[in-house]
Amino acid sequence: MVRIFLLIRSLDRGGAERQVVELASGLVDRGFHVTVCTFYDGGALRPHLEATPAVELVSLGKKGRWDVGLFLWRLQRAVRRAKPDIIHGYMGIANELSVVLGRLSGAKSVWGLRASNMNLSRYDAVSRYAFRAGALASRFADAIIVNSEAGRAHHAEHGYRSDRMVVVHNGIDCERFRPDPEARARLRAEWQITPDERLLGLVARLDPKKDHATFLKAAAELSKREPRARFVCVGAGAEAYKAELQVLARDLAIADILRWAGPRDDMLAVYNALDVLVLSSSFGEGFPNVVGEAMACGTPCVVTDVGDAALVVGETGAVVPPSDFVALADGMHSVLILPEVKAKTLGEAARDRIVSKFSKEALIGATAEVLRASLRSAR
C-alpha cells in the first residue's frame, strides 16, 4: 500500500481545500493509505474528511505566520509517524516543505500548483519572495501537478521546472453538485428573490484577484438594461476590503439590489438559486472550482478569460476579457435574455460537459497515476 502524506495550510472553505477532501477520500478507495496534515486547526471542510475514517487527519496547531520553530518540529514528528512514500504538497510553502521533508525521510516530493498569471504586486513582500523561492526549489520536486494549462505555462515562464509538470484538472463531484429545484426555491425564498427576478452571483472570497469591483460595475451597467436583475456576492474576506466594496456598491446605486451573503456551507443551494454564475477574476485563476460546480448544477456561467476558465465553460456560457466591466455586463446580459427553453438547454449542456470532462473520478485517476509514476522516477 502506497502511503501518501497530503500537506496543506488549512481545511477552510476554498477550491484547493475542497479538492483535497475529494482527493483524499478517492485515493483511499484506490488503495492508498492517506494522511492529511494541516498547518492550522479546524476548518469548515474538516468534518467532510472526519466522515471518512480511513483518512488519517493531523493538525499541527500553527498559531500564526511567525509560529515557525514548534510548527516545524511538530511537522517532522508527524512525518516520522506517518512513514510516507510520497509527500504531496498542496500550494505555497507546503510544496517547499515537501522537498525538505522528503529528503529527510526518503519520501518522494510531489507538488501542487493551482494558480496562473499571478499579479504579485497586489500582495505583500513575503508572497513575492515565496513565489521566487518556489521556482528555485521546484528543481528538487519529483513531480509537479498543475491544475490548468494556463498555470503550467505561467509557472514554466517564471522558472519553475517544466519537465516534471503534469496538468491534472480539478474534478467535480457531480453526484453532490446537481440540479435541485427544491434547494433553489428554498434559498431564493430566504434571500427574498421573487420568481420573476433574475439572480446573478459571484462566489469568491474577498481577494483582489477575484476583482469584485469589476463585477459590481458590471452589475450597475446590467441593471440599467434589465430591471429584474438581482445580485449576490457569496464569500468571506477582510472586513476592511469588504467595506470598500460596499462603499463602491452604494456609489454605483446598486446596494438595494445586491446581497452580501458571506460564507455559506450550502453551496448546492447557492448554485441552484442562481440564474447565472459570474467569475470576474482579473488574474491568478487556475481551474476555477466554482465554475465547474455551478455548471454541474445546470447553472450557466459567464467568466473572464483567466486561467482555464474558458476551457471549462466551452460553448456552454460566455467568456469575456478580464477587467472590462462593459464586456462582463454584455456577457451577463447575453445569457440572461435567453428564452427559458434555451437557458434550460444551455444549463443541461453545462452539466454534461462537467460530467464528461471534469469529473471527480477523472481527477482521482489521473492523480493516482502521477503519484505512482513519481515512485519510479529518479531524482
Note the main attributes of this structure.
single chain; 379 residues; alpha/beta; six-stranded parallel sheet; 13 strands; globular
Order of the strands making up the biggest sheet: 3-2-1-4-5-6-7
- In total, the number of strands is 13
Described by strand count, sense and barrel closure, the largest sheet is: 7 strands, parallel
In helices, the fraction of residues equals 40-55%
Whole-number average pLDDT? 94
Q: Which structural class do the helices and strands define?
A: alpha/beta
Instruction: Outline the low-pLDDT stretches.
Output: none
Shape: globular
The helix/strand series, from N terminus to C terminus, equals: EHEHEHEHEHEHEHEHEHEHEHEHEHHH
Q: Mind telling me the C-alpha Rg?
A: 21 Å
* Total of helices: 15
Termini separation: 22 Å
Strand content: 15-25%
Task: Give a brief description.
With 379 residues, the chain is α/β, with parallel strands linked by helices.
Structure description:
Helix 2 links the parallel strand 2 and strand 3. The model has no long low-confidence stretch (mean pLDDT 94). It is built from 15 helices and 13 strands. The protein is globular, with a radius of gyration of 21 Å. The longest helix is centred in the C-terminal third of the chain and has 18 residues. The strands form two sheets. A seven-stranded parallel beta sheet has the order 3-2-1-4-5-6-7, sandwiched between helices. It has a six-stranded parallel beta sheet with strand order 10-9-8-11-12-13, sandwiched between helices. The chain has 379 residues and is an alpha/beta fold. Helices cover 46% and strands 16% of the residues.
